[in-house]
Amino acid sequence: MRPTLVLCGPMGSGKSAVGRRAATALGVAIHDTDAMIEERAGRTIAEIFAADGEPAFREIERDVVVEALGTTAGVLALGGGAVLHPDTRRALAGYRADGGVVVFLDVSARQALLRIGTDQRRPMLHGDGESPRQRWNRIAAERRAVYEEVASHVVTTDRGTPAAVARRILALLPDA
Ligand SMILES: Nc1ncnc2c1ncn2[C@@H]1O[C@H](COP(=O)(O)OP(=O)(O)OP(=O)(O)O)[C@@H](O)[C@H]1O
Ligand SMILES: O=C(O)C1=C[C@@H](O)[C@@H](O)[C@H](O)C1
Ligand SMILES: [Mg+2]
């Protein structure tokens, strides 16, 4: 079993929101790896970061994402930093080699920050010495090449509702 579609991209690009609309339109399930991690850990992502730190979170995330790529159908929305783990990148390359579709949802800093603001549920946005805007910009710049490497398609989400962005993505799928 494998997902019909995998979404990656930075915080606020719309992976969860667009993923839900795409899944509804296709009549399939949506799986969001952030929600799967919280369910497995019995804690929120913010709680995991606060208690155990980012490296511990990335290990749980690697386990959940690699497993989900082999065991779920439907749409799989990844956490923003899931592509950082080399095991996850290898699993995504295997999924694509097998015909899977990975879409990088690109977004401008301006739109992303308008959407997510200073949301406390996103621990990567908060840290010493940098504003959420500075952190978002730095992280997005650091990750851009990795998103491009893992993706088969890039879709910009600045314009259009989540449903409209979902329709653009569905047009990329084989047999759509
Ligand atoms: N195309 C869009 N137009 C307007 N609002 C949007 C769009 N896409 C997403 N949003 C809104 O922006 C917010 C963030 O979107 P979402 O949670 O889907 O981002 P994400 O990529 O999953 O972020 P994270 O990596 O933090 O999980 C949500 O409130 C969502 O409804
Ligand atoms: O971009 C990131 O590193 C993150 C994005 C979210 O989806 C969550 O996975 C978590 O808040 C970390
Ligand atoms: Mg999300």
TrEMBL record:
Q: Where does Mg(2+) bind?
A: 16
The note on cofactor binding and number reads: Binds 1 Mg(2+) ion per subunit.
Q: Per its UniProt record, what PROSITE patterns does this chain match? A: SHIKIMATE_KINASE (PS01128)
Establish whether keyword ATP-binding is in the entry: yes
Name the Enzyme Commission number(s) assigned to this protein: 2.7.1.71
- Name the GO cellular-component terms: cytosol
Subcellular location per UniProt equals: Cytoplasm
What is its cofactor? Mg(2+)
Pfam families for the chain: SKI
Looking at the keywords, is Isomerase present? no
Cite the binding residues for ATP: 12-17, 122
User: Domain of life of the organism in this record?
Assistant: Bacteria
- Name its pathway: Metabolic intermediate biosynthesis; chorismate biosynthesis; chorismate from D-erythrose 4-phosphate and phosphoenolpyruvate: step 5/7
GO function terms (MF aspect): ATP binding; magnesium ion binding; shikimate kinase activity
The UniProt keyword set, sorted, is: Amino-acid biosynthesis, Aromatic amino acid biosynthesis, ATP-binding, Cytoplasm, Kinase, Magnesium, Metal-binding, Nucleotide-binding, Transferase
Task: State the family it belongs to.
Answer: Belongs to the shikimate kinase family.
- Function of this protein? Catalyzes the specific phosphorylation of the 3-hydroxyl group of shikimic acid using ATP as a cosubstrate.
Q: Write down what this protein is called.
A: Shikimate kinase
